[in-house]
Write a sequence for this structure.
């Protein structure tokens, strides 16, 4: 059974810092891994999708990496801003197109 | 393209009542997913449609829950005889019928059972 975990559960950093969020999954048989952002009381916004054959994806100040063999992904956020404050979730797509989410990391960027 | 739309945004109901939520996916998206999310947790998979066919249901989806997508467009999620433990955010997502197509989420329906 696929399980997804995220560390840390919460993170507070001063504005301008670079930071790394971690995601682990137990079954390496995945089609892709996605990182999402969720603001309080809202739905999820897709940030990056890494296909199983890829090692990383970049979008602006965000860079996500994938190491399928070790069951790990990281989301790197450069030069953090207060507007980055949100919960970040990773999710893996398994066979039958089922998408399994981690519990999320709550990020707070202090001005 | 107006994104995924969910109605209502909020629903307060008394225990034992039935409720129905609606999801309108992005128009060209064949796949539609329902998730449930409680505070501080990631979304939990409930069920998944490809066009009008319901391809998978989670064990979380008890007999009181039913989902339909009659014409392969909008979907409804009904909960019968609601219980306090059903209180959660119910999220709908859609995607293209391509393995590496990202999920697009609606803003969810927050259910409170009193």
């Amino acid at each position: 059974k696929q399980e997804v975990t995220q560390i840390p559960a919460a993170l507070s950093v001063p504005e301008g810092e670079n930071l790394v969020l971690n995601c682990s999954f137990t079954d390496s048989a995945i089609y892709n891994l996605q990182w999402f952002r969720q603001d309080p009381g809202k739905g999820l916004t897709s940030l990056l999708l890494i296909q199983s054959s890829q090692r990383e994806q970049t979008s602006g100040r965000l860079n996500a990496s994938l190491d399928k063999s070790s069951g790990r992904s990281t989301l790197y956020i450069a030069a953090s801003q207060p507007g980055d404050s949100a919960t970040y979730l990773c999710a893996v797509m398994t066979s039958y197109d089922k998408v399994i989410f981690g519990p999320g990391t709550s990020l707070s960027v202090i001005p | 393209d107006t994104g995924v739309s969910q109605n209502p945004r909020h629903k307060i109901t008394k225990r034992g009542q039935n409720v129905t939520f609606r999801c309108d996916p992005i128009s060209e998206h064949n796949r539609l997913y329902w998730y449930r999310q409680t505070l501080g947790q990631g979304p939990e998979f409930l069920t998944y449609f490809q066009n009008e066919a319901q391809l998978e249901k989670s064990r979380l989806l008890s007999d009181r829950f039913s989902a339909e997508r009659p014409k392969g467009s909008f979907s409804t999620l009904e909960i019968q005889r609601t219980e306090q433990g059903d209180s959660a955010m119910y999220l709908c997502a859609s995607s293209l019928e391509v393995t590496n197509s990202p999920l697009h989420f609606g803003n969810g329906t927050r259910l409170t059972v009193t």
User: Anything to note?
Assistant: The two ends of chain A are 41 Å apart (CA to CA). Chain A has no helices and eleven strands. Residues 91 and 100 of chain A are 5 Å apart (CA to CA). Chain A touches chain B at residues 4, 31-32, 34, 36, 41-46, 49, 51, 89, 91, 93, 96-104 (CB under 8 Å).
